[in-house]
Amino acid sequence: MEEQFVLRVPPSVAERLDRLLGENASTDDKSLDLSFEEDGRTGTFVVGNDRFPASLLDLPCVVESFKTYDDSVLIKTADIGQMIMVRDSSDAAPDTVEYRHGLTPPMRDARKRRFRREPDLNVSLASLHWNILFAILL
């Protein structure tokens, strides 16, 4: 298995990355760096001389990645559960560690719409119910 991640960047940064990875990149724009702080969730993405804030976010579900060598057979290469989101310096930092939406529009607000809600369980009330049930059975 390969190590992979999803990198989501603003459109302006995407254009620069496209030029950087292409053959017609200038020499001063060739630097590319990603570093994280001690918390492991916030960091800095550097393209050329520009710095952009970045965050490591958990995806609501696991995404599989595939590779093909002959355009007919797909080989699974990784399970991806996290995304590095690069944002403009004017955008606010995310307040949670989990990204609410998936990678595609149909997965918008995926946790709320597609997965079961965790039960609201009061521990003291549940233990009382179990004690009453055991007392009745005995």
TrEMBL record:
Keywords: Nucleus, Transcription, Transcription regulation. It comes from the Eukaryota. Residues 1-127 form the TAFII55 protein conserved region domain. The keyword Disulfide bond does not apply. One of its GO terms (cellular component) is transcription factor TFIID complex. Belongs to the TAF7 family. The keyword rRNA processing does not apply. Its main location: nucleus. InterPro entries: TAF7 (IPR037817), TAFII55_prot_cons_reg (IPR006751). This is TAFII55 protein conserved region domain-containing protein. GO terms for biological process: transcription initiation at RNA polymerase II promoter. It is found in: Nucleus.
